[in-house]
Specification:
By secondary structure, this protein is α+β, with helices and mostly antiparallel strands. The protein is built from three helices and eight strands. It is globular.
Length: 183
């Protein structure tokens, strides 16, 4: 009887270990597709919403008690300020020589405080890696623009349901975009 209990406990421990290993493997999905391309900014538009901020101080639905909760923002000096928006348009290339066009892109960045923004990136890609739109978003600190990382949140066609990470870094004339899509 004692031998059977020891065997049962051993089986439970082994099964538990296998389930734990399977759970850890599922928690860390493998990178199934890597993609690198280069972007070159070809346009930018800045939307300064300073006039709206000024109107909102006097014309708002808040009570006096709620209005005291409003953050104190000094709109004097260099922007961008909270509520401002920047839109960048891009041409995408397959290599750093910027000779083979593989699509276009756009960043829409919504500024909050301290020149930080929430940016949404749209990359319309075509070529051997597949065709479709890849969408990513995340915070960008425009005081430290040497490098930024975004989370891939979806896409269309070849990138439908895509998830993963995107890292952008300057190369001198363009930005290198490294994408890791998870399975």
């Amino acid at each position: 009887m004692r031998g059977r209990n020891a065997g049962a406990w051993l089986a439970i421990v082994v099964l538990g270990g296998l389930l734990l290993a399977a759970g850890q493997a599922a928690a860390r999905p493998a990178v199934v597709h890597k993609l690198t391309f280069y972007s070159f900014a070809n346009g930018a538009q800045y939307l300064n919403n300073g006039d709206d901020r000024g109107r909102g101080i006097r014309n708002n639905p808040f009570s006096a008690a709620q209005d005291r909760l409003r953050p104190k923002v000094n709109d004097v000096g260099d922007g961008p300020f909270p509520g401002d928006v920047a839109v960048f348009t891009l041409t995408l290339y397959s290599n750093p020589s910027l000779k083979t066009n593989i699509g276009s892109g756009a960043y829409t960045c919504y500024y909050n405080y301290a020149k930080h923004a929430l940016c949404i990136a749209y990359y319309q890609l075509s070529g051997k890696g597949g065709s479709g739109t890849l969408i990513a978003s995340g915070p960008v600190d425009f005081d430290n623009t040497d490098r930024f990382e975004l989370v891939v949140t979806g896409g269309t066609n070849a990138y439908r349901g895509a998830r993963g990470a995107l890292a952008a870094a300057p190369t001198g004339t363009a930005e290198r975009i490294d994408v890791q899509l998870l399975g």
